[in-house]
Amino acid sequence: MYNKRIVYVDGFSGPGRYMGGEPGSPMIALEAARTHRANLAGELVFLFVEERADRAAHLNSEIAAITHPAHFKITVEHGAFADKLGKALDELDRDRSQIAPTFALIDPFGFSAFRTP
Q1: Which of 14, 66, 84, 100 could form a Cys-Cys staple with 5, CB 3.0–4.6 A?
Q2: What is the reported pTM?
Q3: Which residues lie closer than 8 Å to 17 by C-beta, 6 or more apart?
């Protein structure tokens, strides 16, 4: 089965750039998708989740400053990753929908809500 949508989730996205100006994972992902040698013509959905309001706001400003194709759907969510992901999965379940092929980057520096036994 072919999907016309690909989803990229960055669970702990940060502000988009480090203090030295180096791009963070959201900016790297957007640039990689924009410049990919394959024609990524379907809808590319980017969901960036950041718990700190100041970092989410900075990421929004970084994204606003770049040019991206119209088929990129970019959302920055302010809040806890576990809450945002849980809500999204609950909505899919409620609507009896399936998620599109998804890559989730979960780089939880200091994150302790999920623990392995």
Answers
A1: 100
A2: 0.82
A3: 23, 24, 27, 58, 62
* Torsion 8-13-16-20 (CA) sign: negative
Which residues contact residue 113 at a Cβ distance below 8 angstroms, ignoring those fewer than 6 apart? Answer: 80, 82
The values of phi and psi at residue 115, to 5°, are -130, 145
Number of CB atoms found within 10 A of residue 66's CB: 12
- Are 10 and 49 contacting, i.e. CB atoms less than 8 angstroms apart? yes
Contact 77, 84 (CB under 8 A): yes
Read off the pLDDT band of 108 (50, 70, 90).
low
Average pLDDT, the chain: 85
Cβ neighbours, 10 Å, residue 29: 20
Element (H, E) at 4: none
Q: Name the packing angle between helices 53-64 and 25-34 (round to 10°).
A: 20
